[in-house]
Design a protein that fits this description.
The protein is mainly β. The radius of gyration is 48 Å and the shape is rod-shaped.
């Protein structure tokens, strides 16, 4: 046990706890320079239906033998009309402190109805009435349960919108509160830690105030209070078993500061939360630090630039670029120097999500009465509420009127809350999927983050109430993003890309966006109502990048995951070309290719021949034009394989003759025989002539030739 106490009291080698205020109760009376008193029964028994009347009489409070005695008595006859008296001491107006160590050593009474407490209240209620400005309970106990004590913080809004968090400590080994124990609280800007006899049993790091930003309300000076109440809401009233008088005995009250003796510790527990174009940072206080240097970079691992120096353990970095990842470290400094940097954390800025449930249609299982309708839970007004019938199960669901990816649900409970409940989502308000479940809810404001679910409807389904009343919600808030289309695929074709994706329920249309640059920027090219689109008229061989968003009556979603595709052609079949050969030198070669609408052609051949005509010709051929001619056609950027045709160009034609017995016999290899009586013509075909052809000249002069084409 001694080792535990030492471990709880040692925080750092670079700083020490130094006593700044104490009362050892070594005198013979209460020190009026340190303590004053509350007198009376307050309003409504100090707001808790307590039964005692507080006095400063020596019969209720005195100092003796090094102890402060706070004595609760049963008065016969009654005192000022009250059956019980006791005392309540406080340092209000005399001493208050923000942050530090607060230590009490005390023993408590046992008995039904005793309610001893060592606690703290704000010097100045700068954030509003109780509990918007906070309350810190270092120790309180039910006299009927001497084996258990507890510590609590109260915060939030002014009553009845206050909330609290805390925990209990069970004495080990049969220990009881009627023995002396040390009750201690360590309080810094970002955390509170409760100890009993040096054993840490509770740490609180999360709280809020309607009157100011975190770490409000626990960033102001608080004063000390010690009292022994009788009866009231916490532990109930005395009964026949309760023995009077009962007393709290306090050995000492000590308050410490943490004072540096060297370079401060490295900051720990650095966290960051993105909101719009800013990042809210917070970290645990470093022993001995007087200020902190906040540093950031847009490169993982730095180098870092110092952007602020602050005495607080939090900082909000504003004016950031949305959708950008920032990397942060923090160092601590004092007059001895600066610590090394903390562990790096990162945050990506995002546009903050709106409350999707605000003023949306609501359906409930029941209402307590007509004035506590379900619509009150989504009206944005924390003074109105929905309350169900006094039975289990009960539920309330909101129609978001579009499909959302749900990531957060915030419940603002009235005093009657659900101890066991589920948060569920549905696309049809019939089939529900649970995305959060608890059986240990403590009510208040429950901000459920990190949820994962998709649906149009969100339901709180309660199965166990916290008490005899129904389920009562001031507000049901739902946060999330308009559901982003999933399953986007892209299939490339010839001059086109076929896109498809999963249907998003309640989407009225989609926006298809394209870019030729990886990552955009994107241009909206279509707004189909179905979950598919074919992008035509593209260039083959170019990569296109696509994203899709969905549009519904509420908003447009963010873009889907990007996909890409590169259109390619399916080569057409090779053409079947032809020619007019075989031919003879000097004749014209005619090449032919089949007609393909919209196609372009490319010919190649012997002696460097090329042409882009569909049907090219070569005049005055020679035997050098003999060979293989090749042609391709291109359609939509897609080129066919080549088709070929073989051309034969024969040597020039020769005609021979033989004259015998007044008969002329002509011989030629090919062509049409023509005749004329004059070299200039006219020439006439002799279509019936075939080689060899005998002829008897009919005129004094008769000429013959062969027409090849």
């Amino acid at each position: 046990m001694v080792l535990m106490a030492l471990a709880g009291g040692i925080r750092s080698a670079s700083a020490d706890w130094q006593l700044v205020w104490s009362d050892e109760f070594d005198g013979t009376s209460v020190d009026a320079t340190k303590w004053t008193f509350d007198i009376g029964n307050g309003s409504g028994g100090w707001g808790n239906n307590e039964l005692q009347y507080y006095t400063s009489r020596a019969t209720n409070v005195y100092v003796a033998s090094g102890l402060l005695h706070i004595v609760a008595r049963k008065e016969v006859p009654k005192y000022n009309g009250f059956e019980y008296t006791s005392a309540k001491l406080k340092t209000q107006g005399l001493f208050s402190k923000k942050y530090g160590r607060f230590e009490f050593r005390a023993r408590l009474p046992q008995g039904q109805g005793y309610w001893p407490a060592l606690w703290m209240m704000p010097r100045d209620s700068v954030y509003g009435g109780w509990a918007a400005s906070g309350e810190i309970d270092v120790m309180e106990n039910r006299g009927s349960t001497p084996t258990v004590t507890g510590g609590t913080i109260h915060y939030g809004g002014s009553w009845p919108n206050n909330v609290y968090t805390g925990d209990s400590y069970v004495f080990p080994g049969g220990g009881v509160a009627t023995d002396f124990h040390t009750y201690m609280l360590d309080w810094d800007a970002r955390s509170m830690r409760w100890y009993v006899d040096g054993v840490l049993y509770q740490t609180q790091i999360s709280w809020w105030s309607a009157g100011g930003p975190y770490p409000a309300p626990f960033d102001q000076p608080f004063y000390l209070i010690m009292n022994l109440a009788v009866g009231g809401n916490y532990g109930g009233n005395p009964d026949a078993t309760t023995v009077f008088p009962g007393e709290v005995q306090v050995d000492y009250v000590r308050v410490y500061d943490y004072v540096a003796s060297g370079v401060p510790d490295v900051p720990s527990d650095l966290s960051a939360m993105a909101g719009g174009t800013q990042a809210a940072l917070s970290w645990a206080a470093s022993a001995g630090a007087t200020n902190y240097n906040v540093k950031f970079s847009t490169t993982n691992g730095g180098p870092y630039t110092t952007i602020a120096s602050t005495a607080a353990t939090s900082y909000t970095n504003t004016g950031l670029a949305n959708g950008t990842t920032y990397y942060y470290v923090v160092s601590a400094a004092n007059s001895f120097g600066e610590s090394s940097n903390s562990v790096q954390i990162s945050v990506t800025t995002t546009v903050p999500s709106a409350n999707r449930a605000l003023n949306k249609p609501v359906t409930v299982s029941s209402v307590e009465n007509a004035g506590l309708s379900g619509a009150n839970a989504v009206d944005g007004n924390t003074t109105t509420r929905w309350s169900s019938a006094f039975s289990d199960p009960q539920w309330i669901y909101v129609d978001l009127q579009a499909t959302f990816s749900i990531n957060r649900v915030k419940l603002n409970w009235e005093a009657a809350y659900g101890r066991s409940y589920q948060i569920q989502v549905s696309s049809n308000a019939v089939d529900w999927t649970t995305i959060y479940s608890t059986t240990t809810s403590t009510g208040g404001i429950q901000d459920l983050t990190g949820l994962t679910g998709t649906g149009r409807y969100v339901r709180m389904y309660g199965t166990v109430r916290s008490g005899i009343y129904g389920y009562s919600l001031y507000e049901l808030e739902v946060y999330g993003n308009v559901a982003v289309p999933t399953g986007l695929t892209a299939a490339a074709g010839d001059q086109q890309v076929v896109l498809s994706w999963n249907t998003v329920p309640a989407a009225t249309s989609y926006k298809v966006k394209s870019s030729t640059t990886n990552g955009g920027p994107y241009l909206t090219i279509a707004s189909p109502t179905a979950a598919g689109y074919t992008n035509t008229g593209l260039a083959n061989g170019i990569t296109y990048y696509y994203v899709v968003s969905q549009v519904n009556p509420v908003a447009e979603s963010t873009n889907s995951v990007q996909v890409s595709a590169t259109p390619v052609c399916t080569p057409p079949a090779a053409p079947t070309p032809g020619n007019n050969g075989p031919i003879w030198a000097g004749m014209t070669l005619n090449l032919t290719a089949p007609t393909v609408p919209g196609a372009s052609y490319s010919w190649t051949g012997p002696s460097g021949f090329s042409s882009t005509d569909q049907n090219p010709s070569i005049a005055q051929t020679t035997t050098n034009n003999t060979g293989v001619y090749s042609v391709t056609f291109t359609l939509g950027g897609c080129t066919s394989s080549p088709g070929t045709t073989i051309v034969t160009v024969n040597s020039p034609v020769g005609m021979s003759y033989q004259f015998s017995d007044n008969t002329l016999t002509l011989t030629w290899p090919d062509g049409v025989l023509q005749a004329a009586t004059n070299i200039t013509g006219p020439w006439s075909d002799i279509p019936e002539a075939t080689s060899p052809w005998p002829i008897t000249p009919a005129a004094p002069q008769q000429l013959f030739r062969v027409k090849l084409q």
